[in-house]
Amino acid sequence: MRTPDLHDDGWCLESGLERHLLHPESFPIADEAVRTTLRPGDFAKLIFVVQVEDDEPAVERMWVVVRENAEGGYFGLLDNEPSIDENDEFWLGTEIPFGAEHVIEIRKGDAASVDYAARPPLRSWPRA
Fold first, then answer.
1. Is residue 124 part of a domain?
2. Looking at the domain assignment, is residue 68 inside a domain?
């Protein structure tokens, strides 16, 4: 599974695991066993880094609803409206590829989130 690259895609995901390892007392994350066993409908909070015109990249934490398990991670649907003004890549319902290392927070899903995860994405991520 190809994950996004800041230079090629204009955005990427920050590793929550790396941030936790650098600052374990102030940046807790869920146990690996939980981060690696997410199911469709579960919520995962990720750290997005988005390139904006002529500035340092913007960073925003957003929720994604797990859509499916994939080799090397997950596909999910963005469940936030980003506050980044110059954003033209992300909208509610955009498909997002991510790995367990990117997950910083988890909430268990419910019937509504399972239904949301089953909907076709507004914009799909390439599978090749």
1. no
2. yes
- Evaluate whether 103 touches 29 at the Cβ level (below 8 Å): yes
Specify the number of domains making up the chain. 1
What gap in Å lies between CA 17 and CA 58, rounded to an integer? 20
- Short-list 6, 12, 32, 33, CA closest to 20: 32
Residues 6+ apart with CB under 8 A from 26: none
What's the rounded Cα separation, in Å, for the pair 76 and 118?
10
Is residue 26 assigned to a domain? yes
Neighbour count for residue 13 (Cβ, 10 Å): 20
Whole-number pLDDT of residue 101: 97
Per-10-residue mean pLDDT, the chain, length 128? 89 94 93 95 95 83 95 93 67 90 96 96 86
| Residue 128, in any domain of the structure | no
How many angstroms separate the CA atoms of 96 and 94, rounded?
6
